[in-house]
Fold this sequence. Notes:
mainly alpha
Amino acid sequence: MKYINANKVLPENLIVEIQKYVQGETLYIPKPETRRRKWGTSSGGRRMLDHRNEAIRNSFRNGSSIQQLAEEYYLSTETIKKIAYSHKQ
């Protein structure tokens, strides 16, 4: 996260109003809910996990055991169960 000086981007009257609450501190202003991205959408991590989970579900449907999948994917048997029994297609 980069630092931006408020004097360069905000009108003076807004800075005066903000100074009633905070002075000389770093203030984080979050994005609106509509602009937020879900975890992993920028990096591709979410897509990678979705592909892995689909492969786990397919293998389970085709006869692989929970234990075999746990060993193959280095995940706990409980995690494999959650993935294998989920209703995502």
